[in-house]
Structure formats: structure tokens, C-alpha cells
Amino acid sequence: MEMDFLEKLGKKRTILISISILIISLHSIYFYISTTPEIETKKITQQVIRFFLTVVLLLFIYKGKNWARIAALILFSIGVLSGLIGIFTINQDILLKTPLFVMVFIYSFAIHFFGFSESFKAFAWYQNEKENY
């Protein structure tokens, strides 16, 4: 079973968006851990587990699992809302808010892609058909 153009495009974009989300996740982990002068084992453990769960969720999305797509859409929506609230409530210079702008942009793009993109739908269908083949 050969992939057509739309399925290949969906695969490529799924991988790129997943990498972007993981980079944002790593940045937020660094920011969360670096806010205190001492390194707390509890914080590191929580963030490692969160990162691992993000990777697992993205792997299930890649495999075309609809429940993972829905869960991701909910979590990315919460991320966009949190980012927007942070942008308007954090009393810092606009340059210091740049990571929040990036997070809102990437999560918004991910919501659009995983929720409405024809190329992702084609790729997810291909993944499910390949599994049933």
C-alpha cells in the first residue's frame, strides 16, 4: 500500500508539528525547573513524566489513533488559553513573553492541523488502514 501525495504531506507535517511541540515542552520544562535556585528532584521527576506522556501521546497521534487526536486537541486548547492568559496578565517586557507567543502559535497550528487538515486526515486514515491490512 503506497502513500499518495496528501498522505505523505500529512506524515511530514505531523512529524514537524510533533517536533515543534516537543521543543516547546522542553523549553517549558527548563523554564519551570529554573525558576528556583535549587534543583528539586520532585519537579524534575514530574516534568520528565510529563515529557514522556507528551511523547507517547504524539506517537499515538502518529499511529492515527482518534482518541489521542481528541486528547491532544483538548490539551493544546488549554495550552493556547493558558498562553493567551499569560500574555495578557504577566507583567513583563514583550520580549520576555516571546516563548508564550511561540507556544500559542504552535499549539494553534497543531489544533488546526490535527482537527481540520485534509492531509492529516488522509495520513491518519492511511495509518489505520495499514494497521488493518
Whole-angstrom Rg: 17 Å
The major β-sheet equals: none
- What is the overall number of helices? 5
Structural class of the helices, strands and pairings? mainly alpha
Average pLDDT, rounded to a whole number, is: 94
How large a portion of the residues is in β-strands, by DSSP E?
under 5%
Number of strands: 0
The ordered string of helix (H) and strand (E) elements is: HHHHH
Helix content: over 70%
Question: So what's the overall shape?
Answer: elongated
Q: Report, as a whole number of angstroms, the end-to-end distance.
A: 9 Å
What ranges have pLDDT less than 50 throughout 5 or more consecutive residues?
A: none
Description:
There is one protein chain. The protein is mostly helical. The protein contains five helices and no strands. Helix 2 packs across helix 3 (66-89) and helix 3 (66-89) packs antiparallel against helix 4 (98-116). It is elongated. The relative contact order is 0.18.
